[in-house]
Amino acid sequence: MKKNAYHIALWIFLGLLLILTLAPILWVLISSLKTQGEMLMTPWAPPKNLLWSNYAEAWKRGKFLTLMQNSITVTGASLLLMLAFSTMAAFAISRYQTRYNNVMMVYLLVGQTISAAMIVFPIVLVLRQANLNDSLPGLILTYTAGGIPFATFVMQGFMAGIPHEIYEAAEIDSASESRLFWSMAIPLAKPALATVLLYQFMWVWNEFPLAFTLISTTSKRTLIVGLYTVVNGQLQTNYVLAFAGATIVSVPIIALYLIFQKYLIQGLVAGAVKG
Amino acid sequence: MKRSIRQHRSTKWFLAFLTPALVVYTLFWILPILLTGIISLTDWKGTSRLATASFVGLKNFQNLFHDSILSTAVINNLLYGLVMIIAVPVMSFIVAYTIESFVHKKVFFRTVAYLPAILPGIVTVLLWKWIYNPSYGLLNQFLDLIGLDKWTTGWITNSDTALGAVTFTSIWKTVPVYFVLFMAGLQAVPQDLIEAAVLDGASRGQTILHVTLPSIRRVTTIVYTLVFIDTFRVFELVYAMTNGGPGYYNTEMILTYAYKTTFTNSNASYGMAISMVLIALIIVVAALQMKLGNRLADD
After folding, report:
1. Over the stretch B56-66, which tens digit does the pLDDT of each residue have?
2. Would you tell me which residues 33-72 of chain A have a C-beta closer than 8 angstroms to some C-beta of chain B?
3. Number of folded domains in chain A?
4. Looking at the structure, do residues A109 and A242 belong to the same domain, yes or no?
């Protein structure tokens, strides 16, 4: 009896949670397929006809092809560099005992906690000195740098749990250090790599202050900045197209999330949480 | 003898594997932090050449105390932070615990409940600006529907409700981020401890209070620290949703004000002084958390 009441309460709570989470997101999806009039007058009704043409028009007017190309380039290159460098750094910190290990962790922590918007102005100055201002490579290097601490912490936490005997067995076979890294550490750390990939992809793909400030040329903008600009400009009063644009921007990241969602927790349990 | 050679080799490899990360991170992340500190000690506006600037010591920091817009931003930021720190960890734990109690549909609920965290911040803003819209917004339509039409308002254009509306959106987006951390913590709680408590006749509330919460206090400390730090990192939500308005800086936050001071008002050195205070505060809090966290782990 008491158990039943508890279960009913649980269901009601979870139901409310689902509505509060999903209703706004579904509303964007549904509205993006309506006419403007339908959206304003009957916001709760399903669309009379599915207006897929909203997507074609938003795609054209927002110049989403260029934006999509830029975002894919920036996200792909940043993640590649970030994952490569962080995995190497995590391997170094977890395998070798030197007197610099703790210094290194503290040094990384300093950059982990601050946020990009606090230092974006001096980043502009550094990129200008390096002739990388207003360029995709400049943005890519900045994301790589900013993502290194979190990526290294998670990878290091995971690698620290790899038993030493595994490496020692390979050492007896006189495998070189780089062999140990490639053929033992990386394959073993795959779950942590997937976790880092998911979290950092989310960060870079969705990131606003850096992409907004470091890039001034329209044709070099990322999707997020392009969306922000177009919904505050051309499409300011065209809500259905704005929602179609928002959906275009969100679909890739949601797809990646659905594929990788089991790593959302898996890598964290070993790394950040148990620490 | 052999041991010392091996030690040397270790340091060499340690540095070899570390160098790429170290170089990029130092140049593009740490150097800007140092520059923030240096520029904050000058009178540089950011428009001329840096060489033309001169050192003015702590003058920018002294001016912080006579800036009425900054005090408004600090008060807004603290109010926002207070609500976040009260609401977010508790709600995140409740969501995590509820989902974790559902053995069958756990993955489904977790996946859906995390969606707001996945959504780009700019999309979240666009969505909630529409929910808060005075004439066609979902919130007002809903209030009409349940007969509370006298409550309807332009939620982010009315200066009385704007800060609350921004904060609510932030809670919507932040709780998903942290319930996942709590779930990770809950999954690490030894099941036999809970079973032992239940066998001893402990109620559900007692089990949570005396078994679950003590076992996850490491995660709890991390969540409280991160929510606290996040409070001072809040940026795009406000920048894109209200741009600090409506009216007299009703939703201005410390970081949005620092950004505008630097880029819009072309007063780089003063903007850097504000940023520097935030950076220092955050680093101190993170360091304290690390110390505290290590102490908890030693228990």
Report:
1. 989 999 999 99
2. 39-40, 43-44
3. 2
4. yes
Output the pTM of the full model.
0.91
Write out pLDDT tens, residues B208-265: 888 889 888 889 988 999 999 999 999 999 999 998 888 788 999 999 999 999 999 9
CA distance A172 to B202: 53
Same domain, A89 and A156: yes
**Residue of B123, B181, B282 to mutate, testing the A interface (most A Cβ within 10 Å of its Cβ):** B123
Report the share of chain A in percent with pLDDT over 70: 96
Residue ranges per structural domain of chain B = 64-298
Distance between CA atoms of A120 and B32, rounded to whole angstroms?
8
Residue A235 C-alpha from the chain's centroid:
26
Question: B180 and A14 in contact by Cβ < 8 A?
Answer: no
Identify all chain A residues contacting B181, using CB atoms and an 8 Å cutoff: 268, 272-273
Put simply, whether A74 touches B (Cβ < 8 Å) is no
Q: Is B42 helix (H, G, I), strand (E, B) or coil?
A: strand
Q: Mind listing the pLDDT tens digit for each residue in A177-196?
A: 888 888 888 888 888 999 99
Give the residue among A124, A93, A110, A274 at the shortest CA–CA distance from A212: A124
CB of A264 within 8 Å of a chain B CB? The answer is yes
> pLDDT tens digits, residue range B29-74?
999 999 999 999 999 988 888 778 888 989 999 999 999 999 999 9
Q: Are residues A78 and A199 in the same domain?
A: yes
B-chain residues within 8 Å CB-CB of A168? none
Q: Which of A19, A30, A273 is most worth mutating to test chain B (most B CB atoms within 10 A of its CB)?
A: A273
Q: What is the extent of the structural domain holding A86?
A: 54-273
Fold of B64-298: MetI-like fold (1.10.3720)
CB A91 to CB B17 under 8 A?
yes
State the virtual CA torsion across B134, B138, B90, B277 in degrees, nearest 10: -40
Query: Interface pTM (ipTM) of the complex?
Result: 0.90
Q: What is the pLDDT of residues A34-83, one digit of tens each?
A: 988 888 887 778 888 888 888 998 898 888 999 999 999 999 999 999 99
Helix (H/G/I), strand (E/B), else coil: B13: helix
Question: Distance between CA atoms of B18 and A101, rounded to whole angstroms?
Answer: 11
pLDDT at B54: 87
Cα separation of A197 and A154, whole Å?
Answer: 11
- A131 and A262 housed in the same domain: yes
β-pair partners for B42: B55
Tell whether A97 and A209 lie within a shared domain: yes
* Residues of A (225-244) whose Cβ lies below 8 Å from B: 227-228, 231, 239, 242-243
